[in-house]
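Colleagues,

For the teaching module next term, I've prepared a clean inverse folding example: a structure given as tokens, and then the sequence designed for it. I'd like students to try predicting residues themselves before seeing the answer, so please don't circulate the second half yet.
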């Protein structure tokens, strides 16, 4: 559809709506500020022109204003409360009852005007009732005038109502106090009065109808409901708050908090506001540091980049040369393809277990743990067969990926293999495969994603890359710099001859595979931890949680991320080894930052960080809550008990790590003296 045609349609729609809403009844055509923001500028201009053409002034009706807007219009204090009361449902109900009563009364009167009410005493009773109702209508207008002041009078129809009621009152009073003969002489009053009563009734009913219509129109200012569910939720909450009694301070405060949080667009961020949560200021600061560091985009410089250790491709000497034929490897044949010693085979028996020790495989396979683990997992599940992938292609690809990992202590090929294996444990031992209904293409993609997820990581985090304006940070606009590079560089390998592991997939399968890999790898950015965990927890807690449907990707990404940070959920020896290696890398970055004279990144200063203490905080704030949430989807009690055990063991290691820190301090002093 061409753009101009779309605009024509927009004009038609708006014209229709203007006509529909500009019937006599209440206000002028009112615009909804929220919807205005959503209206594209050209459409809005056309809309404005159309409105002018129709000579309809755009202004906001007082019935549409929220508390804040009313306050801006000078309606404050008790008048504001009165204004809110006059717009409440209870008030509308009262008016409906009155109008119904008045209608019945009028009908009775008309039916028996010449019989029952011809008797003067009966007519007086009727007049008293009618006067009371008209009096209430008068008080109602008075209250509106007090509450909404000039806003009320801006509406012509309100002035008209006032006129009719005063006229009605006058007629009733005339009828009561002036002699019939005189009246008959002045006017043909009875006929006019009957008409006026009917007219008043119609006006009153119309006022209620229009009030309802305005509320509805607020939802559909363009004839379409363009509001997001979030806006609807906000509107409901605002409405709920406005209808509450002013004394319900606690509920109003809670509702205000809900409205503030939802409007802030940081629904899933960690709560950085700990009022009353942690007594100890030190704990509070530490936890706050953890939260801040894992909920914002982090940041390298050309100078440091040069200082980075260059990658060394590990040798692939321990692996047999593969069969060149169109061989699709099966479970039994994998051992033929990978020359594995008995020790390696024995450890690979544990491939599906949490206790699996990747460091052993690293040793036993002569540094080919990534090729070995991924090939073994895929062969064990017959993936090469089911997705018709030649092992040769996979082997080309995974070898290149493995050699792309740099010789850093933590973010290396061992860690990549560890993620794939841990995810395998989640999927095939703890039931994630069934829970999320993971198909072969998806499973293959997730295992490959694990292998690629830190590809070419140089041992510096995103904060550092952004801070030092590394070429990668420039390329990826400071957003998930490393993660973007891990994905992009891995997919680049597939473009090389003989390495396209996705070439044989159908277009749909390729799309799905790529989406799974991108989603899971980008999901390993720690700055997204709290926001993603927040979404995950919200979904898991909801009755509609569907891990094999709408929540499949969210669940897979979360479990993939948890596999990435699973070190502390493994048996102590494995856990400690990983953490020591991680901190060698962290402290290396910290040293470079110190040398540059820039602020040292969180947890990376060897002169102040006690690793054991830092781990307690990390376990409490990051690991335990996320694993507890995952435990609601798949049972992972061993991970949870390891977290507790490891935490207890870290507590016994404070002194040991304090000594290590002090030794570093001494060494630093000596180096400084030498300089
Ligand atoms: Zn990782």
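(Answer key — instructors only)
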């Amino acid at each position: 559809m061409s753009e101009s045609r779309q605009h024509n349609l927009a004009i038609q729609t708006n014209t229709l709506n203007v006509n529909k809403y500009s019937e006599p009844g209440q206000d002028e055509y009112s615009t909804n500020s929220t919807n205005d923001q959503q209206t594209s500028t050209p459409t809005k201009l056309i809309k404005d022109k159309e409105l002018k053409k129709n000579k309809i002034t755009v202004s906001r009706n007082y019935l549409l204003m929220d508390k804040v807007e009313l306050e801006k219009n000078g309606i404050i204090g008790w008048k504001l409360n009165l204004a809110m009361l006059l717009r409440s449902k209870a008030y509308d109900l009262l008016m409906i009852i009155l109008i119904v009563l008045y209608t019945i009364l009028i009908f009775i009167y008309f039916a028996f005007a010449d019989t029952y009410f011809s008797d003067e005493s009966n007519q007086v009773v009727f007049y008293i009732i009618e006067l009371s109702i008209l009096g209430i209508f008068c008080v109602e207008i008075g209250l509106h005038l007090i509450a909404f002041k000039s806003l009320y009078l801006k509406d012509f129809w309100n002035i008209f109502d006032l006129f009719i009621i005063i006229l009605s009152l006058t007629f009733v009073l005339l009828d009561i106090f002036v002699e019939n003969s005189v009246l008959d002489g002045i006017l043909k009053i009875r006929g006019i009065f009957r008409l006026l009563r009917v007219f008043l009734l119609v006006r009153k009913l119309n006022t209620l109808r229009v009030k309802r219509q305005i509320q509805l129109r607020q939802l559909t200012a363009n004839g379409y409901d363009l509001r997001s569910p979030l806006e609807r939720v906000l509107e409901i909450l605002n409405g709920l708050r406005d209808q509450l009694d002013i004394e319900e301070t606690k509920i109003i405060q809670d509702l205000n908090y809900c409205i503030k949080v939802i409007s802030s667009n940081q629904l899933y961020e960690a709560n950085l506001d700990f009022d009353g949560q942690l007594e100890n200021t030190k704990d509070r600061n530490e936890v706050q540091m953890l939260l801040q560091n894992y909920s914002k985009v982090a940041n390298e410089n050309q100078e440091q980049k040069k200082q980075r250790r260059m990658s060394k491709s590990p040798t692939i000497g321990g692996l047999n040369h593969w069969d060149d034929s169109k061989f699709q490897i099966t479970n039994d044949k994998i051992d033929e393809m990978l020359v594995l010693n008995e020790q390696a085979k024995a450890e690979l028996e544990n491939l599906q277990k949490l206790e699996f020790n990747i460091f052993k495989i690293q040793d036993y396979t002569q540094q080919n743990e990534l090729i070995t683990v991924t090939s073994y997992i895929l062969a064990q599940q017959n993936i090469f067969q089911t997705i018709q992938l030649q092992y040769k292609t996979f082997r080309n690809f995974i070898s290149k990926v493995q050699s792309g990992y740099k010789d850093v202590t933590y973010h290396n090929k061992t860690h990549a293999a560890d993620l794939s294996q841990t995810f395998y444990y989640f999927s095939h031992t703890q039931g994630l495969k069934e829970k999320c209904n993971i198909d072969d293409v998806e499973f293959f993609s997730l295992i490959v994603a694990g292998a690629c997820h830190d590809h070419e990581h140089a041992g510096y985090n995103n904060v550092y890359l952004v801070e030092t304006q590394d070429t990668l940070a420039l390329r990826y606009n400071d957003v998930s710099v490393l993660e973007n590079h891990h994905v992009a560089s891995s997919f680049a390998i597939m473009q090389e001859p003989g390495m396209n592991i996705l070439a044989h997939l159908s277009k749909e399968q390729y799309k799905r595979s790529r989406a799974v890999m991108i989603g899971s790898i980008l999901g390993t950015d720690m700055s997204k931890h709290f926001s993603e965990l927040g979404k995950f927890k919200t979904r898991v807690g909801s009755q509609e949680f569907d891990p094999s449907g709408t929540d499949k990707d969210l669940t897979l990404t979360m479990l993939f991320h948890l596999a990435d940070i699973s070190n502390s959920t493994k048996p102590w020896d494995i856990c400690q080894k990983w953490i020591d290696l991680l901190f060698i890398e962290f402290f290396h970055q910290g040293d470079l930052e110190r040398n540059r004279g820039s602020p040292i990144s969180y947890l990376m200063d060897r002169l102040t960080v006690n690793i054991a203490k830092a781990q307690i905080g990390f376990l409490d704030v990051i690991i335990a809550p996320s694993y507890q949430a995952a435990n609601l989807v798949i049972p992972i009690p061993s991970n949870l008990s390891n977290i507790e055990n490891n935490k207890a063991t870290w507590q016994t290691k404070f002194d040991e790590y304090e000594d290590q820190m002090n030794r570093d301090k001494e060494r630093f002093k000596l180096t400084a003296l030498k300089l």
